[in-house]
Design a protein that fits this description.
391 residues, alpha/beta, five-stranded mixed β-sheet, 12 helices
Length: 391
Amino acid sequence: MESTLERTWAEIDLDKVVHNYRTLKARIGENCKFLGVVKADSYGSGSIPVSKVLQEEGADYLAVSSIDEAIELRKHDITLPILILGHTPKEEVKNLIKYQITQAVSCIEDAYDYSEEAGKANGTLTIHIKADTGMSRIGFLCNDEELDASVNQIVEAMALPGLLTEGIFTHLAVSDEPGEFCKDYTNHQIANFKEAIVKAEARSGKKFAIRHCANTGGVARYPETWLDFDMVRPGLLLYGYGEFAEELGLKPVMALKSKVYGIKHYPADTRISYGGIFTTKRPTRMGIIPYGYADGFFRCLSNRVEVYTESGLVNQRGKICMDMCMIDLTDVPEVGEGSTVEIFGNLQSINDIAALAGTIPYEIACAVSKRVPRIYYRNGEIVGKELMLRG
């Protein structure tokens, strides 16, 4: 679907995806595989164009959260192995096999269901075993008390017909958090993961071809997660966001921009927007930008956040509305109707916006709504435009 792109838009620099991939690949070395996490439409950046870049660059694997995301990639010429990190209903096993998609198996019940359905489809389903070593979410529970019993179930799953157990993985809960407790907790998770692998391989007589646990925090802080295992799967790092990105030399992939489409002049003592939480203290030149909470501008940021203009930062004023918000342009008379403003990107970090909202950069990036057009760049040139609304 086409758009005029004159409202609010996101610019996605695919060269920065390339830069981030190459930087991270150099960090982990040639002996470790690279899985690019492209779930949630590549954190709002567009899973298809990002996956195509990763495929061209020689990445080894991709990860998504659902079969719908995986099939979308297959239908757009993505041939890389794809791992579904979340649950897939057993009725879809035939499509997992048809599209050659790898499925995470988080419990013995799913393993039996998938085995049965693979038999009905006369095919083989490639799986990765999910071990819960401390995230306390999904996975075979491999903590201190349950590890031995869970390993027996993992071995049981590995022996089922119709299933090809290619890999095993776990997810680190606090690898991106500071402090000795988080360091000890992460190291304990890694130790439990190693023990589960050793026991499962010994009891099954089989080796896992791919063992992986390195999320963003693992890649940034724990070298053993790529030195001792076979693959890493950075998410936020790949897109150049988060506290580790700058120190690792990574670049933000997305810049979110809008335009001033109206200017209003108000006297002192004028209440602005819903609830009147901001009152002008002087004659004020107020700009209106078409970016509101339906586009992903969190309402909790109202009257607290700044946006970047050609003359620097200016304050957002009053409550953020569904489709627009107001910015104070009194001190920047050169900024007028048609001027571009940046919400986050190269000039203003998404990390700062996230911190102000009391959340994480993941949420800010993923919240950019489908009505915000994406414009894709390579070598400084526009190579694609996408509007996710139904055409």
